[in-house]
Design the sequence.
């Protein structure tokens, strides 16, 4: 691990005063958490994207607001559900954001996880999928999105306007953005596909596989297979790999009261998600010295270059900054962390 950031699901309540932040509070808190994290050297601020749910959605306005308030932190997603996206519009917005942030965008995209709405992407106007999960249109859209981000010609030029025949690329174009696109892979098969396609690997706290192996070992094998596919495809640059974990250093009585019980009983779990028998990673909650040893024994954390800490964003700015600060002070240096003032993360 060289870098760490936070991953927020952006949960909020239906209205202010109903037991949690409302949507406006959630968005403002996200900006404040990212601003504080930037100042303490945290490397990334990443946001989950869900539709038809009281969670983060429409990430570009939020990421733009964070980029405008920060200097060094990487801003991104984990992940954008391509079933709900216009790939060319997304490519335009991503390039504009990357230019404004001076190359600090890292977008995770994928087919997406199960959403509350039944075939909700069709309500967004995207029909034609023959897959009950919409995976077919997500892959097709991603291919077009990646071509656009790479600056390939997409649309035929009108010779009456352009003066010649040819293909026009999406504008604006941000050189280097294509190297900061990630595919959110939930299996070893999709990880191999990402390696062949030449995009970075983003792996979360679950895999849609259950082999009996520990989650961390199964995920480490996924990372190995991604890198092998990358090398076999002949890509020249070094890819990036991220994993996410729920990690809570226990340094105060409040930490122990909030998170201690979760660490005492936590273990990998196996369940069904999206029709697949899946493995879910455990929560880490312990004293910093214990956490260091646990995370050094986590094969996937050791193999990845970037670790994303899933945060309880609904608990407010101060508590979440405390979690990030205690991890930065007491745990991350022992794992090889390089703070953001040393530059953007690399593979």
Sequence:
């Amino acid at each position: 691990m060289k870098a760490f950031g936070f991953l927020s699901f952006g949960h909020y309540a239906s209205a202010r005063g109903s037991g949690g932040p409302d949507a406006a509070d959630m968005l403002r808190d996200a900006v404040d958490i990212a601003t504080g994290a930037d100042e303490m050297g945290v490397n990334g601020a990443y946001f989950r994207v869900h539709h038809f749910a009281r969670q983060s959605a429409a990430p570009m306005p939020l990421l733009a607001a964070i980029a405008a308030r920060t200097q060094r932190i990487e801003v991104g997603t984990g992940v954008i559900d391509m079933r709900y996206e216009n790939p060319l519009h997304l490519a335009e917005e991503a390039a504009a954001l990357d230019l404004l942030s001076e190359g600090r965008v890292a977008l995770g995209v994928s087919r997406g996880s199960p959403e509350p709405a039944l075939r909700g992407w069709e309500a967004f106007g995207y029909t034609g999928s023959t897959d009950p999960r919409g995976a077919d249109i997500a892959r097709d859209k991603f291919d077009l999105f990646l071509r656009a981000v790479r600056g390939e010609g997409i649309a035929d030029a009108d010779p009456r306007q352009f003066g010649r025949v040819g293909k026009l690329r999406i504008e604006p174009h941000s050189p280097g953005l294509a190297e900061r696109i990630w595919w959110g892979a939930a299996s070893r098969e999709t990880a191999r596909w990402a390696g062949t396609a030449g995009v970075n690997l983003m792996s979360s706290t679950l895999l849609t596989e259950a082999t009996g192996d520990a989650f961390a070992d199964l995920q480490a094998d996924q990372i190995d297979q991604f890198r092998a596919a990358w090398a076999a495809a002949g890509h020249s640059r070094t890819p990036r790999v991220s994993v996410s974990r729920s990690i809570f250093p226990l340094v105060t009585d409040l930490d122990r009261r909030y998170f201690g019980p979760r660490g005492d009983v936590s273990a990998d779990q196996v369940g069904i998600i999206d029709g697949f028998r899946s493995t879910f990673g455990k929560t880490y909650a312990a004293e910093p010295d214990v956490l260091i040893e646990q995370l050094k024994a986590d094969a996937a954390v050791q193999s990845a270059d970037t670790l994303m800490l899933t945060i309880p964003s609904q608990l407010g700015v101060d508590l979440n900054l405390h979690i990030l600060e205690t991890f930065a002070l007491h745990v991350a240096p022992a794992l090889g962390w390089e703070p953001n003032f040393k530059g953007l993360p690399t593979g």
In short: The longest strand covers residues 241-249. The radius of gyration is 20 Å. The chain has twelve helices and 14 strands. The first helix runs from residue 23 to 40.
